[in-house]
Design goal:
mainly alpha
Length: 152
């Protein structure tokens, strides 16, 4: 897990093939640790109480956005994530910029971050302190929309 915990935001933007490899490594580790070579991956995750690697990375991204919005991150992060104050600022939604390319547009922190953040439940986004947010985000099972950013 140390390899996946180091720079998880970088791992979030790797291609589908590498994401599959990450999940397979976790699946093999869970099979070994739980001594269960028969169950499917979802059952192993449920028994262990662990999320998929991708959900874990999205949780880290959401936590970084929370820290940015609440001035707990360096100032340069404010340049990446911008609150949408035009419409209902209490909802704490971010502006999602339109992108022209996938490699340098939609598959970037500036594009994916707001999509993940805006898909969080309202009570998650309205949380005031970091420890409460971390408790809530650890219960989040991932986005439930069909956009490109949310599809596995």
């Amino acid at each position: 897990m140390a390899n996946f915990n180091y720079c998880p935001l970088v791992w979030l933007f790797c291609n589908k093939k590498l994401k599959t490899k990450q999940e397979n490594i976790q699946k093999r580790a869970l099979r070994f640790l739980l001594n269960d070579y028969e169950s499917d991956y979802n059952h192993l995750l449920q028994i262990s109480g662990k999320p998929t690697i991708e959900i874990r990375q999205m949780r880290v991204l959401a936590t970084e956005i929370f820290k940015t919005i609440n001035d707990l991150n360096p100032v340069y992060m404010k340049e990446i994530f911008t609150l949408n104050t035009n419409r209902n600022p209490e909802r704490k939604k971010l502006i999602v910029n339109t992108q022209n390319t996938k490699k340098y547009g939609t598959d970037t922190l500036r594009s994916l971050g707001p999509k993940i953040w805006n898909n969080l439940p309202d009570d998650f986004r309205k949380t005031q302190d970091l420890s409460s947010f971390k408790q809530l985000i650890n219960t989040w099972s991932g986005p439930h929309c069909q956009c490109n950013a949310c599809q596995s």
